[in-house]
UniProtKB/TrEMBL annotation:
GO terms for cellular component: cytoplasm. The lineage of its organism: Bacteria, Pseudomonadati, Bacteroidota, Cytophagia, Cytophagales. InterPro entries: Biopterin_syn/organic_redct, NAD(P)-bd_dom_sf, Sc_DH/Rdtase_CS, SDR_fam. It is found in: Cytoplasm. It holds the Pfam family adh_short. Keywords: Cytoplasm, NADP, Oxidoreductase. One of its GO terms (molecular function) is sepiapterin reductase (NADP+) activity. GO terms for biological process: tetrahydrobiopterin biosynthetic process. This is Benzil reductase ((S)-benzoin forming). It comes from Algoriphagus zhangzhouensis.
Amino acid sequence: MSKTLLILTGHSKGLGRAILDQFLKKEGVEVLAISRTKLNIEASNLTQLPIDLSELEVLDKELESIFPIANYETIILINNAGWIGEIKPIGKLHPSEMRTQVNLNLLAPMFLTNSFVKSYKFTSSKNIVINISSGASSRPVSGWGGYCSTKAALAMFTLVAAKENKSDNFKFFSLAPGIVDTEMQADIRKSSDVDFPELEKFQDFKSNGDLSDPKEVAEKIDYLISNVEKFNEVIQDVRKF
Ligand SMILES: NC(=O)c1ccc[n+]([C@@H]2O[C@H](COP(=O)([O-])OP(=O)(O)OC[C@H]3O[C@@H](n4cnc5c(N)ncnc54)[C@H](OP(=O)(O)O)[C@@H]3O)[C@@H](O)[C@H]2O)c1
């Protein structure tokens, strides 16, 4: 029996892929990974569940199988899957894209966090939830209305979960990963300067080499998980540790 179970969303690329690689190489860790894309990796400690997390009816049906009742010392949920959404000012957004973004960035991690607490509240395991946030959760960015709003709401949900489970065997974090060199950043650089006034700044981040390496961010997340007792605040930023 593995000592640790990691449930990770958005493992197929970017930061999630780096977190997956970081944890697969550890002893005694089993990973349940959820993205739309299934990676071509053979590892006895990896189970991949290919689902679209914005399809909430599908997710709802899978919840029981995602959180097995089993004897692990530590159970970790990392809600990492996320989408920058349409980069356009409010007034030019499409309702169907807004719905997909809210489902993926906010409701899916809320469903997963809720099920996680329900499943493990009365177990003896150490339970850790990390909801991947963004500096945009506390800073209004023109063109990112849906992204800023969903990240802000998820941070508040995480704060409430932490408040409700203070005396229990739970730790909750809303973690900003910094500006990371992933496809999400490439998508941001492809947007239009009409719709996104900060375009040049984000293009400069790339050309000046200011983006973080996903592997280094994954190592920081591993450090946080291995040292939760050192982190008292729910709101965390990898650039601060
Ligand atoms: N990159 C940054 O600078 C930055 C900064 C702050 C915060 N963040 C946050 O960090 C997290 C990871 O971002 P990233 O930069 O690594 O993004 P990314 O490279 O675009 O990767 C996103 C991941 O989410 C998965 N995903 C997207 N839509 C999905 C869906 N409908 N259902 C299931 N999985 C889905 C993708 O897999 P599939 O396409 O295979 O489904 C992929 O594995 C996000 O929450 C993002 O908001 C990133």
